[in-house]
Amino acid sequence: MAFYQHYRVSTVGIQLEDSLEDMIDSEMMTEEQAEIVRNQFDKAISLALSTQVKNKANLKGKLHHYRNCDNVWTFFLDSATVKIDSNRETHEVEDKLKIIACDGRTAGPSSKKKT
Known about the structure:
Elements: H1 11-25, H2 31-52, E1 57-69, E2 72-84, E3 89-102
Antiparallel strand pairs: 1-2, 2-3
């Protein structure tokens, strides 16, 4: 089952990739083993975010443009304000803000309909 791979460009995903490349270069791991680790990372981060994160955020800003490809929405906002409900923090982004949104229920094995 395939999971979204866009978390690989997060801070933790980039660090994981750097570590995997170092291990491949030092012949501690094969490329096939590294791909297994990458796929497990995709699965683990998707499941953790869908089950452990309960915070909600409110966004305001001027929508610059958006797109939808394979049920993954990408929004680009100008002068955005982000309010996090859990701690009532407000963050203002003066530059552009890019948001990638996808339905976590469609990425993993739990999305299969039981027949």
